[in-house]
Amino acid sequence: MARHVMLDPDAHRDLRVSFARGAQWGDAVMSAIVTPAEFRRVQNDYAILFRHDLAADRFDAHALFGFEPGENLYLEGDRWDAGALPLAIDIQPFLIGATRDGTARQVHIDLDHVRVAPAGVRLFDEDGRTTPFTDAAVEKLSALDTGWQAAPAFFSALRRHELLEPFTLEVTLADGAVNRLVGYHVIDEAKLRALDAAALGELHGGGHLMPIFMALASLTNLSGLVARKNRRSADG
Q1: Which of 110, 129, 164, 185 has the lowest CB atom count within 10 Å?
Q2: For the whole prediction, is pTM greater than 0.90?
């Protein structure tokens, strides 16, 4: 369950949020949505794959953490073993809300999220002012919201130039077990190479070439993810 409310200094004066890491804090997830604006920051750690929401006919990008639901191979006990955290993970339990007329953005919090915990960091000081922790969370929320708003133009460009192709990965682990990753898409590198100067100019002008290259570069992390899976399997 979730209980989303607008963050309020009077109602939430004594609220605390934990920024610890671990499965008990909701980090045992297979992937997280990332926006194209994040690709450069996260591509060194995670494979970036694309998933098609058939109901909404919309593509989203995902940073991959594991090969099956609930598996996060970057989690080492209470440590997240990566240089960067996707914003969608880093901002929990905060989220972006909006006024009823949709004209203004608001900071909301899920009061039922496991991270809302007595042992956490205060969100407001004794005078009702936001703490540095809250200020940083709001800054990250703003970055995520800006990236989310810009993402449709990126995916529209990919679809317009037919640059997405279905992707299936079958991994045979050291113990002989087979993991199969299906339902994702990647950048079609052959079609990207075949684009003419006008198409490449359009993509560059829209700011789309850099995230395309970052998504392609990120796929080198798949071998590292397989290695993490093998180590985890060997450890039992």
Answers
A1: 129
A2: yes
Where do we find the tokens 């890491």?
21
d(Cα 21, Cα 27) in Å, to the nearest integer? 7
What values do phi and psi take at 200, rounded to 5? Answer: -65, -35
Closest CA to 7 of 133, 168, 162, 179: 133
Six-digit token string for 44: 């060194």
As a three-state string, the secondary structure of 9-69 is CCCCCCCEECCCCCHHHCCCCCEEEECHHHHHHHCCCCEEEEEEECCCCEEEEEEECCCCC
Given a cut of 90, is residue 195 above it in pLDDT? yes
Say whether pLDDT at 59 is over 80.
yes
